[in-house]
Amino acid sequence: MSLAIVYSRSNAGLDSPLVSVEVHLANGLPSFSIVGMPETAVKESRDRVRAAIINSGLNFPVKRITVNLAPADIPKDGGRFDLPIALGILAASEQVPQEQLTGYEFLGELSLGGHLRGVRGVLPTAVKAHSMRRKLILPLDNADEACLIKGLKVYPARNLQEVVKHLQGDEALPRWEQTIQVQAQRYPVDLADVKGQFQARRALEIAAAGGHNLLMVGPPGTGKTMLASRLVTILPDLSEQEALESATIASISHQGFDVSRWGQRPVREPHHTSSGVALVGGGSQVLPGEISLAHHGVLFLDELTEFERKTLDTLREPLETGKITLSRAARQATYPAQFQLVAAMNPCPQGRACDFQTNCECTPEQQKRHRMRISAPFLDRIDLQVDVPRVRQEDLQSLVVAEGSVEVRSRVERARERQQRRQHKINNQLAGSEVNQYCTLSKKDQNLLSHAMEQFKLSARAYHRILKVARTIADLAESEGIQTKHLSEALSYRALDRLAAMSA
Q: For the chain, first and last CA: distance in Å?
């Protein structure tokens, strides 16, 4: 028979639609054509496949070869179709039994010598293959990643010859059953390393307990970056589902997924020269950006005012919804983006010695223009705005060891457990109606909040975010309701709002 069908999968965002690689051999002048919306890398597979088959000691048919990647309306890219195309040609030329192909899905890029190279986007393919109860044959480099899907039968191969021998029944490929154990995270840094900065440490704990966004404002050298790098050390471990979601996004990115980082919260630190596409994702292939790569993790934006204002404003929607939808001419993809934003900025343009005191060389107008590099709608979505002043000399020289990450993390975990029991989500994810249900105030505290809203000229969004922060503070204190001290503390973390109100 001169027709063969091999199953593979394409990448379409986080989805991995089935692709039937149909190969037909016909008499006539020798040719090799690929149809079915292939992109450049797929078209180039003709030369790779031909050389790989010949250099593997197999016969390349001197026929009119037509390869159809169905369905034709899905774009195909990358070298992942090299292996299924080669097997389709071998099956159509009766070098491989076709009946052996139906129970498998294949992917992998071929070298000219027939060796298999790893590809990106294996996890979505593995999930779909497991749901269809098919086995997966892929390059050895991708075996560990595919084995993250429990119950999936994975058969890795080093080269095309091994795959052919397996299908011919001559030499079976061993099933890859390596399991990756999630170990307790050990970080080279600890919150105890931070000297002084008690208010900032407290704000960091509140941010971790409720999943709140945090902005630290202070002159250089006060420990803002140091504090931000230690947020991940006080966050709870990822659940298995969260770890899988995070790994899947990394799998389809340009960098791919490193299995040694399984179960670790992602931390992304894009440079301030990053574009909007780099942050939210996009491009011709509609790949995930930094905010999606930070899903269930931390996105740290240092030197916040150095980012383009337009670039920062692209984060407004994902900060609110926890997802981003990217539309391009031929493709559309929706990626999750439930990240925790931590940002740092100097309080004024020159920044050397500025701490809002008499030693600042900037005029109030210069400070105001500096702060206006951040739009009000973007600032509205940041729950905690905290001053980080210069560390006192006595704090730097003190030999007293501050509270470490382990102790703080235990309080954070208990607070999050309270939130899960009460509302089945963390406080930062509460919707408007849920805020009214779980963040109730006494009459006196309602008046206090109303006065603050009027004085600081706060928006309705800021109103709800203050209530969420107050609820988190109450959870840390193991209090059933929000008390006046909890609300007062939540109001104290609106540093830029206060400055804006005073300078208005």
A: 81
Number of domains in the chain: 2
* Residue 353 pLDDT level (bands cut at 50, 70, 90): very low
Task: Decide if 402 contacts 195 (C-beta within 8 A).
Answer: yes
Nearest-5° Cα angle at 385, 382 to 390: 145
Instruction: Tell me the per-residue pLDDT of 48-58, one tens digit each, with 9 for 90 and over.
Output: 999 999 999 99
What is the structure's pLDDT at 12?
86
Show the CA angle centred on residue 135, arms to residues 130 and 138, nearest 5°.
105
What's the predicted TM-score (pTM) here? 0.89
Whether residue 161 is found in the same domain as residue 259 = no
Q: Say how far apart CA 273 and CA 280 lie, in whole Å.
A: 14
Give yes or no: residues 77 and 154 share one domain. Answer: yes
The DSSP secondary-structure symbol of 390 reads: P
3-state secondary structure 4-20: EEEEEECCECCECCEEE
Work out the angle between the directed axes of helices 495-503 and 364-371 (0-180°, nearest 10): 130
Q: Containing domain of residue 340, as a range?
A: 191-415
Residue owning tokens 């063969």 = 4
